[in-house]
Design goal:
It comes from Providencia stuartii. Keywords: Amino-acid biosynthesis, Cobalt, Hydrolase, Metal-binding, Zinc. One of its GO terms (biological process) is lysine biosynthetic process via diaminopimelate. Belongs to the peptidase M20A family. It is a single chain. The protein is globular. Strand 1 and strand 2 (about 50-60) form a beta hairpin. It is about 30% helix and about 25% strand. The chain is α/β, with parallel strands linked by helices. The strands form four sheets. It has a six-stranded mixed beta sheet with strand order 1-2-6-3-7-15, sandwiched between helices. A four-stranded antiparallel beta sheet has the order 10-11-9-12. The longest helix has 20 residues, at about 350-370.
Amino acid sequence: MNSTLSLTQKLLSFNTINPPGNEAECMQFLADYLKHKGFETKLHSFGEQRMNLLAWISGSKTGKPLGFTGHIDTVPLGKTPWKFDPFGHDIHGDKLYGRGVSDMKASIAAFIIACIQQQAALRNSTGVVLYLTGGEETGCDGAKALLAEEHVPEPGALIVGEPTNNYPIIGHKGALWLRCALKGKTAHGSMPSLGINAIYLAVDALGKIKDHSLGAPHPLMSSPTMNVSRIQGGENINSVPDYVHFDMDIRSVPNLPHQQISQQLAALLGESAVLTTLVDLPAVLTDEKHTWVRQVYQHCQALHQQPLEAKTMPYFTDASLLVPALGNPPCIVLGPGEPEQAHQTDEYCSIVKMEAAKTLYSKIISDWASA
């Protein structure tokens, strides 16, 4: 199992759909595999069958190691039937199919194989550390627990293997998930005037925020966005509902602090609305002029016809927690998966791009080792 393809297929064979996650078996496999290949490893449990993994190769030089991070949990398969095996057996032409192949097991396989092939160089450098997490798809639960409960080494630079079509991405939006709760007064459904309908209160609140602008656009990330993604209220059809809540998925930009967003919405919605924070992940942005970033750009340019530009992504990654907690290293999101394939039925990844990513990671490691 020394190729990117074979290791990707092995990772796809583990059902790590989240919820519930069940990353433990896959992480144990990776821990054993990496130990056999010369890594030191440490498993970290953050719940029943929930697991993170730290793996590293120590170098002979002083300084911070190069870091790679990826998550092995995946989203559910969805309601639409799959034409291809979601657990990694089907290859058609250049496409390997499977849940999580683009997002992001192919990338994990690619940077692991690259590290193994560059092991001698890494041992003569400051080394490498892999931050492999579970629980990312539900708000970076694994990374949060790892940082809270373990000593996590700081990297000198960090590569996040999320799907980017092998295009170097220097940042991404943050995620602020808020729950707005409203209380009314219950009454018999035949006498609604005796109650206060909480659903009607929610309708009024939703009207206030529907076209509300959260703030000015960012030059690289455009405007922050807000999506009301879930609403729940009422218990039975013949009563006036006395409680309702709705959830907001806000994607933020670096020039808009989350506390400011929460205060802004609280003032807009009024005292009757109670806001609770469900997920709080800041935006990530690295200076494109950073020396290491420019080196990565040079290697990536060969894979793209047009000159590379500074680009960001609207999704969040574990970097939202890892970067500020680990000394704010320069960070690039870079992986072989195609962003449009993430969470799709019959998700696939190009085998050619998987191999290209492995070669790309190898060149980045070689640069790091020779610095």
